C-alpha cells in the first residue's frame, strides 16, 4: 500500500538481525584461536591479535563503535536522529496548487528542483525552501569552536551506532571474516594433501591446537564462517543497509 513506508519499516528489524549475526560470530572463537596459533607458529615472534574486530564482536556482541574504540561501555548513547523525508507530492497535485495569482505573487513560474519538487526559487540557500535544515547544518564549516566538545562517557554521532550498523566497522568485520574463511580453506586444503611431505613435516613442531584438528572439524568451522558471511552479504541485507544510510 505504501512501498516507501513499508521499506523503512523493514529497517527497524535490522538490530535484531545484526544481533543474530553477532551471536554467530561467537561460535567462531575456536577458529579464531586456531588462526592465532598458526600465525604465531609461522611468524614465530608475532604477538599481534588477528581479526581483532571479529574477536570483539564474538566476545561482547554488536556493541557501539564507542565501546570498540575505547574499550568502555558508554554512560549514555545519543544516536543520530533519523531524518525522515516526507514523500514528495505527485506532480499533478503540485501543478494544481499553483494558481496564476500565486505565481504572480511569487514572482514568476515554478522551476523544478531536486526530488521532483516545484519551487519559485532553486538553490538559493536559506531562502530557497528546498534544502532541509539538516542539509544546511551539514553545509556549515566544521571548525572546532563551531560544535561543543562531547562529554566523557557519551557516545554520539557515528560512535553511537553499533559496529554492524556503521559502514566503516561493518566493512572491517566483513574483511576479517573473509580473512578467517580464507585461512580455514587453505589449512583444510593442506591437511587433505597427504602427499605434501613438506607441509606435514613443518607442522610436526606446531602446537597441539594445530596438530589436533581433524579435517572434519576444520570443514565444520569453515562452513560456519561461510554461513555467517553469506547471511551478512545477501542482496536484501545490502538493500537494508542502503536504506538505513539514506531514508530518502
TrEMBL record:
Q: Which domain of life is it from?
A: Eukaryota
Q: Where is this region: Disordered?
A: 81-112
GO terms under biological process: regulation of mitotic cell cycle
**Annotated Gene Ontology cellular component terms:** endomembrane system
Q: Which Pfam families match?
A: CDK5RAP3 (PF05600)
Q: Where is the composition biased (Basic and acidic residues)?
A: 81-94
Q: Which PANTHER family match?
A: CDK5 REGULATORY SUBUNIT-ASSOCIATED PROTEIN 3
The text of the family note is: Belongs to the CDK5RAP3 family.
This protein is called CDK5 regulatory subunit-associated protein 3
Q: In which organism is this protein found?
A: Cuculus canorus
Amino acid at each position: 500500500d505504501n512501498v516507501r513506508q513499508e521499506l523503512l519499516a523493514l529497517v527497524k528489524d535490522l538490530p535484531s538481525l545484526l544481533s543474530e549475526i553477532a551471536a554467530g560470530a561467537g561460535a567462531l572463537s575456536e577458529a579464531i584461536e586456531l588462526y592465532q596459533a598458526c600465525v604465531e607458529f609461522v611468524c614465530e615472534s608475532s604477538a599481534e591479535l588477528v581479526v581483532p574486530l571479529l574477536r570483539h564482536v564474538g566476545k561482547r556482541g554488536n556493541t557501539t563503535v564507542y565501546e570498540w574504540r575505547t574499550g568502555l561501555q558508554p554512560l549514555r548513547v545519543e544516536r543520530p536522529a533519523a531524518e525522515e523525508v516526507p514523500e514528495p507530492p505527485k506532480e499533478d497535485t503540485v501543478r494544481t496548487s499553483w494558481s496564476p495569482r500565486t505565481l504572480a505573487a511569487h514572482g514568476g513560474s515554478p522551476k523544478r528542483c531536486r526530488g521532483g519538487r516545484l519551487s519559485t526559487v532553486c538553490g538559493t540557500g536559506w531562502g530557497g525552501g528546498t534544502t532541509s535544515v539538516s542539509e544546511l547544518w551539514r553545509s556549515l564549516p566544521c571548525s572546532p569552536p563551531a560544535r561543543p566538545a562531547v562529554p566523557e562517557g557519551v557516545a554520539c554521532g557515528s560512535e553511537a551506532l553499533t559496529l554492524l550498523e556503521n559502514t566503516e566497522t561493518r566493512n572491517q568485520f566483513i574483511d576479517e571474516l573473509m580473512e578467517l574463511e580464507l585461512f580455514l580453506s587453505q589449512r583444510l586444503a593442506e591437511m587433505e594433501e597427504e602427499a605434501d611431505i613438506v607441509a606435514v613435516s613443518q607442522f610436526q613442531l606446531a602446537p597441539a591446537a594445530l596438530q589436533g584438528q581433524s579435517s572434519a572439524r576444520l570443514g565444520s568451522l569453515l562452513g560456519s564462517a561461510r554461513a555467517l558471511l553469506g547471511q551478512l552479504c545477501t542482496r536484501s541485507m545490502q538493500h537494508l543497509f542502503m536504506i538505513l544510510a539514506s531514508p530518502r
